[in-house]
Amino acid sequence: MANYDRKDTYYLKAKEEGYRSRASYKLLEINDKFKLFHKNSKVLDLGAWPGGWLQVAKKLSPQGFIAGIDLVEIEPIEGVYTVTGDACDDEKINDILEKAGGKFDIVMSDMSSKLTGIREADQAAICGILELALFVMQKTLKQNGVFIAKVFKGGDIDKIIKEARKLFGTIKRAELNSTRKTSNEFYIICLDYKATNV
Question: Where in the sequence numbering do the catalytic residues fall?
Fold first, then answer.
């Protein structure tokens, strides 16, 4: 694994500007490119800890309902509803949907798995994370909604994205300036969701 400076420009900028994660700038960059958020958007963040994307969502949709779920407890953010638990837990998801008053305009996932260094295992885990996010998205995203997900190159990712294309009008791929140069991540921006009965 290549070395990188954890305390790089974006890390330091996040500390200075009060964001919990350098990843906040990724979501800001995505929105600058695709104009996805509106002032009253309902937004769900899967794997939301430590809350950097929630902070950005609240800033971009100040009158919307912003919610996040993670296995790790998220320190409270004013005006944001957070749940500690597994995104696969129907009870937790139903609780969030009830609090939101229905499905979401935007579902997003910046989740990633802990890498083991074993190529096959890591690629399987990476694919599993995307499949999980897509599964939960189908329960929580409203018709014509937007899904944003972090993806890593390799394995069966392209096959999964190809299958996901059946669920959306358009899927765009974005490689971000705010991503570390050593990373092989990119994001998929999925537009015009064709709601299913999952």
Answer: 150
Which of residues 117 and 191 earns the better pLDDT score? 191
| Calpha distance 56→8 (Å, rounded) | 20
Q: Which residue has the tokens 């969502």?
A: 57
Order of strands across the sheet that contains 141-152: 80-84, 66-70, 43-46, 104-109, 141-152, 185-193, 168-174
Strands 168-174 and 185-193: antiparallel
- As a whole number of angstroms, the longest Cα–Cα distance in the chain is 45
**Please, which residues have CB within 8 angstroms of residue 119's CB and are 6 or more apart in sequence?**
none
Q: How far apart are CA 188 and CA 150, in angstroms?
A: 7
Residue 106: which of 63, 151, 61, 69 has the closest Cα?
Answer: 61
Q: What is the pLDDT of residue 180?
A: 62
Token output for 190: 């999925």
Q: What is the pLDDT of residue 3?
A: 41
CA distance from start to end of the chain: 38
pTM recorded for the entire structure: 0.90
